[in-house]
Amino acid sequence: MGIFDKILGGNTLYYPGCLTKFVAKDLKENYEKILRSLGIDFIELSEIEVCCGSPVLKAGYADDFKNLAEKNLKIFKEHSVKKIITNCPACFLVFKKTYQEFLKEKWDIQVEHISQTIHSEIKNQKPKIIIQNHEIKKITYHDPCHLGRQMGVYEEPREVIQSLGYEIVEMELNRLDSFCCGAGGGIQTNEPKLADKIAKDRISQAKKTETKMLITTCPLCYLHLQKNAQDELLVQELSQLFKNND
Amino acid sequence: MINERQFLDNQTKTALWQIVLDYRQKREKSLLKNDLERERFREELFQIKESSLSQINQLSEKAIHNLQSNGITVFKSKDDEEARQIIEKILKDKKKIIKAKTNAYLEIENQDFLKDKEIIETDLGDFLVQLLEEKEIHPVLPALHLTPEKISQKIKEKFNIDLKSQPEKIAAFARNYLRKKILTAEAGISGANAITSDGKILILENEGNISLVSRWPETHIIVAGFEKIVPHLEEALKVIQASAIWGTGQDFPVYVSIISGPSKTSDIQNQTIIGAQGAKEVFLVLIDNGRSRLIEEGFAELLFCINCGACLDFCPVYHQIGSNYGDKYLGSKGVIFSAFAQDFRQAVEANCFACTLCSSCYENCPMKINLPELMKKLRSYLTKENLQTEENQKMIEKIRQFGNPFGKIEEGQTPKELYCC
């Protein structure tokens, strides 16, 4: 992006979301590298931006959610943000769908899930990123509820995974019928036992595909399924399939 | 919080999975057989219910007027207690009652209700649940957790008959046993799947027991929520079709009774005599029990529900705790309903804060009820009433202070409590 485009078109913000920023920090580093090697010019607002509000709204604090949305919009405007790229499906859903329902001011920021960004870049150019050398080539893909069923993003992540040389063996419950990983809605902390049991069900559904690796595109699904898979299955987040050659 | 005893055992879990996956296939086949395009049909059903509920007062008045002029006695009850009183009064001198599957009855009953009478469940699933003194686990298949071995053993203990764990023999035993009970019953109780404003009550079934419950005894009592009312037969039959497709994966139920009054004859000199071979008196108890409040508080969509149970099919919570998720009705619907039929505290008990908001219920609902949105709205009501969980309270304090759900994080540290999304 040239300097004039940047002034006229505004900034592209990479918004990792709280979970990626504070917990799954390696994913954040992976995505920064991936975006850079795709030649995407982006800014980050690490300490400045606040939580998107997804956990807040789901727990039932609608007023707090509105506050967060207003705060974020103000911050984004101050930094001339015209586009947000996020790897968190919950942030993606909230920015793309929910903010406009709560904000009085107009929300005209373009929002993309990072799998969509990578998908369109891979189509346009051969990126300078190479595939992580996993010995496993047959994998299964877990659709995060917020990305799939709630936002209709099913094919982009699959096509990115396939373009990296993996063969996807689908679980019986996929896409629209995908089964929840068990971590959403605040139940990971409110009902931890229940959350674990649900994840174990999803893991056994994945094991029926007879693949040895499950890939997902959500930091929460990733952390939660990984914790519950133990040694039964390798759980990876999309960015972990890439390796930067710098 | 959910306790260890509330989780389903592995055997029940496996049985549940087999059934819901089988239903999914059957449902798709039934839609094909009926030349129905899934999304278009769902939209049509949504419109039917939305339009009916938006004019429910007029429709209800019209329905009551027409049903009464057909000879059906209609009672309106504001809550469960009033509904019980009405039914107790109708059944005052009757002792032997047969019952069909009805969710509305389950909604209004309590421990002491009709305790002085012999009440026999005639739906096979309900009969088995009653016989084994178990709890229903599914609105359409209440006994799906009971194996033929378990049932057979109980029948042997109770009646000294060995059915050798064979499902056909169990069904034949129930047929004989129930027929004797039906023959001497003084009243029958059923629900309704749809009621039309021009005065018809529709009840669907496969087993044939409802036909007997509604026709054999002298008295037939129908219990139903007022949201069952639609304008005409055309809309009512669409509701019936959806109930079959999403309830059991059938293209149409085996029987649909359309009842427009007590049985009658004019065969003797054209003089109308009420009470021929079917019921002599028919009562309809229309219940509110929180429904008007649901509408007032912005939850009208919940009343689009036809009780098919498809919302439970891929519900991650239901697959772990079964009927412990919900209240009188199961799943997310049951949680929300309990908040208004009883109180907000009951919704917490029904595990309102266990829902993962994954939206599979919404996706599977033939009526397109946006249950996760309603659940979020209910949580905001509970939170305002200070019924939030401790964990949520911790989370919101951190958000208010630090702008993230984990709190203050030092450089290089990772938070231990992962409240998110």
Write structural notes for this entry:
The complex is a heterodimer of chains A (246) and B (421). Chain A is α/β, with parallel strands linked by helices and 246 residues long. Chain A folds into 2 domains: 3-117, Rossmann fold (3-Layer(aba) Sandwich), CATH 3.40.50.1860; 130-244, Rossmann fold, CATH 3.40.50.1860. Chain A is built from 11 helices and 9 strands. Chain A has helices at 3-9, 18-23, 25-37, 54-59, 62-78, 89-102, 114-124, 155-163, 187-190, 192-207, 219-229, and strands at residues 11-14, 81-86, 110-113, 129-131, 138-142, 167-168, 213-216, 234-237, 242-244. Chain A starts with a helix and ends with a strand. Chain B has a domain at 56-289: 3-Layer(aba) Sandwich (Rossmann fold), CATH 3.40.50.10420. In chain B, strand 2 (96-99), helix 5 and strand 3 form a beta-alpha-beta unit. The longest helix of chain B is centred in the first third of the chain and has 24 residues, at 10-33. The model of chain B has no long low-confidence stretch (mean pLDDT 96). The chains are: A alpha/beta (246), B alpha/beta (421).
CATH architecture classification name of the domain at 56-289 in chain B: 3-Layer(aba) Sandwich
Following the backbone from N to C, one meets helices and strands of chain B in this order, namely HHHEHEHEHHHEEEHEEHEEEEHHHHHHH
Radius of gyration of chain B equals 23 Å
What's the CATH topology name of the largest domain in chain A?
Rossmann fold
The CATH class of the domain at 56-289 in chain B is identified as: Alpha Beta
Helix-strand pattern of chain A = HEHHHHEHEHEEHEHHEHEE
Task: Report the oligomer.
Answer: heterodimer
Low-confidence stretches of chain B: none
List the chains of the largest interface with their residue counts.
A-B, 51 and 51 residues
Kindly report the name of the CATH homologous superfamily of the domain at 56-289 in chain B: NagB/RpiA/CoA transferase-like
- The rough form of chain B would be described as globular
Instruction: Return the CATH topology of the domain at 56-289 in chain B.
Output: Rossmann fold
**CATH second-level architecture of the largest domain in chain A:** 3-Layer(aba) Sandwich
Helix content of chain B: 40-55%
